[in-house]
Specification:
2 domains, CheY-like_superfamily, 10 helices, transcription regulation, DNA-binding response regulator, phosphoprotein, Rossmann fold, alpha/beta, 6 strands, Arc Repressor Mutant, subunit A, six-stranded parallel beta sheet, 49% helix, 235 residues
């Protein structure tokens, strides 16, 4: 459920649709039939509206410059600029913009490149009718959306880094910080976390700020990625 408390400094820049107005979406795919099908999925939802379309990454960037958008849904494989290249450009152009990758590729390499570029979700076209709407809403709540196989890939990648000694063992969290991190990663609001742990919302915000500072992270999405890597939440 939405967090009714005012956001702290770390979340103040997170985008959200204007009250009563739908989330404004840019849809980019080089196949017009695919765009048409995806648009039908999104536009039938009252809180989602496709306001711009693009046939490649370069057109997507131009559309983002000329129109007010909250969320970009990009195909990975597009001419001129790929979805990955466009994501990097869009993150620099509009740092608060949320970006989802919509792709036919169930591929770990693409997944990691998309997350590194700045995407907050990775949705397979084969299940877009099931997952895409939920992914759009999760993105606007500043939460990641990954299909189950992607979560497994992230955990496998983490275990590989542990085996090769690439994880820093000195980033210790207190037991209470781990509790707060786990609950944040599971999608609980600050009010819900306060009720579960019998602490005040203000204390939850302080723990979250401490987590961001201690781990060198910037927002809820990065906390969730860390929790997955650390094995605090299960796939």
């Amino acid at each position: 459920m939405p967090d009714p408390t005012p956001p702290g400094p770390t979340t103040a820049s997170a985008p959200s649709a204007t009250a009563g107005k739908p989330i404004r979406i840019l849809l980019a795919d080089d196949h017009a039939l695919v765009r048409r099908g995806v648009r039908l999925i999104l536009d039938r939802e009252p809180d989602l509206e496709v306001v711009a379309e693009a046939g490649d990454g370069a057109e997507a960037i131009e559309a983002a410059r000329s129109q007010e958008i909250d969320l970009a849904v990009l195909d990975i494989a597009m001419p001129r600029l790929t979805g990955l290249q466009a994501t990097r450009e869009l993150v620099a152009l509009k740092p608060g913009l949320r970006i989802l990758m919509l792709t036919m590729h169930d591929n770990e390499q693409y997944l990691f490149q998309a997350l590194k570029a700045g995407a907050c979700g990775y949705v397979l076209k084969s299940v877009a009718d099931r997952d895409l709407v939920a992914a759009c809403r999760a993105a606007m709540r500043n939460e990641p959306f990954l299909y189950p196989g992607a979560v497994t890939a992230l955990i496998r990648n983490y275990l590989e880094r542990v085996r090769h000694g690439e994880e820093d063992p000195d980033q210790f969290l207190t037991p209470r910080e781990e509790e707060v991190l786990k609950l944040v990663a599971e999608g609980h609001s600050s009010k819900e976390i306060a009720e579960i742990l019998f602490i005040s919302v203000k204390t939850v915000h302080r723990h979250r700020a401490n987590l961001l500072h201690k781990l060198g992270l910037h927002d809820r999405l990065e906390l969730t990625r860390y929790a997955i890597r650390a094995g605090l939440i299960e796939p």
